[in-house]
Design brief:
2 copies of one chain form a homodimer. Chain A is α+β, with helices and mostly antiparallel strands. Helix content of chain A is 42%, strand content 19%. At the A-B interface, helix 3 and helix 4 of A face helix 3 and helix 4 of B. Chain A binds a DNA duplex through helix 7.
Amino acid sequence: MHEDEAIVRFTSLTGLKREELRELQGLAGPLVRYPAGTVLKEFGEVTGDPLLLLEGWACSSVPMEEGARQIVKIHLPGDLMGLPNLAYTRNVDTIMSLTEIAVRIMPRSSFGTMFERYPRMAAALFLISLEERVTLMERLCFMGRAEAARRLAALIVQIRDRLLKSDPDLGLTFRIPLTQSHVADMIGTSANHVSRVIQDLSSRGLIKWGRGKLTVLDMPGLLDLAALPPRDVAHDTAWLPRPFFSSEAN
Amino acid sequence: MHEDEAIVRFTSLTGLKREELRELQGLAGPLVRYPAGTVLKEFGEVTGDPLLLLEGWACSSVPMEEGARQIVKIHLPGDLMGLPNLAYTRNVDTIMSLTEIAVRIMPRSSFGTMFERYPRMAAALFLISLEERVTLMERLCFMGRAEAARRLAALIVQIRDRLLKSDPDLGLTFRIPLTQSHVADMIGTSANHVSRVIQDLSSRGLIKWGRGKLTVLDMPGLLDLAALPPRDVAHDTAWLPRPFFSSEAN
DNA sequence: CGTGCACTTGACAGCTGTCAATGCCGGTGG
DNA sequence: CCACCGGCATTGACAGCTGTCAAGTGCACG
């Protein structure tokens, strides 16, 4: 993914102006690359600056007792990682790359700048945070109520939806750099059980999943199983501050 | 709770100045009271304005299939309710009062004003949102990994911690306006099972719970069972914009 | 005193964690 | 080319937590 595209995704929901995007890029640090499996932030350590993910996959997880962990979010290009740490002195999660990744550091001070000088950008940041909250709410519902097969179906649908945003031509077969262990840590079961559930979905003719490659065979069936609550993605941003630079109305 | 106290709680984490608090109050609408059991927002309906809760308890829940629901948050005095709706056109959860409550409407436009004219207040709002996110992350972990007894223990500890913030003298016995059905919808089990789990905790001598009154008999034991991850509550707000009015340093 | 709601209790089945063993596959080194 | 190895995935057995159903209890309220 080209860097501009990632930045555009980051700000798409508020319709920020091109000039504002440039300012945002001006606040970011240089591009840095890491190999797969790199731990970028460790839970409990003193917080650093948030990171803007530009290429590759990463994930945030919270360590539990005895080596277990819960993955709380998959990061895709365009995502800001480590944002919640702004409110704490120690990292609230562990951030690790799942593939080779490219990131830019977003210095803490740049967020102060945003709030002081670029209110629309700050508001965009706020909206992104609210969306994350809703995503977590949704996952919380599934975790508490649904059985593993449905949680897996919902996970697949949600990941594909997010991938679609940056690649509208994404087919029904695509790469997912997640092992069954990762999936287990995401949907809250054992890696053992994930194997059973995947085979269950396969035998129902819904998906095919192997070697990091996932194929959705029956999307309506998968959606039906996932039974995600309807969520209106259209955003009402009429309350946002007026654009800073542009002459045209938003 | 006196209104000022609630407002102070709302903004405590960023050390907002007294003048800013007054501005915040100026943005809010008049005080409105509702009896227990009032539905203030209904999931899926067109969004209205967020509400600042000043007295009483309320909860946000997401309806699931067949009348089931997941309670995603308990609102206590000082909480802003319905904030995530700012990013959507339809309510992402149902907000219902658990006791008699008093609220003030925070018009959508007032958030635009905050971002334009009171960057520190906007940043405070942002931080609150990040905290909510972390709370949800934590609950997600428990929902996926812990058995019901531990989830209940964690719930009790967390609620008491939040009550302590507004009443530092809170003893080990306090009122909780939650039925076992509510608890079930919070920790993701059946109301039936909640009864069993409460009796389990009781027989272990950890708590006593009846008639809306909860007594913690063995706090260390309860904390041990809950096994909440250590979370540094101190906030690093050095990146925040400078105070708007005051002359003193923050 | 009757009604309704909240809570309790018991039985049973089902999903899922755990343990252990096995299979598969890619990479490494000879 | 082949043997070995380690990580990942599969499979089976078993126990435990938990949902469901159903019946019963107790309390508050009118």
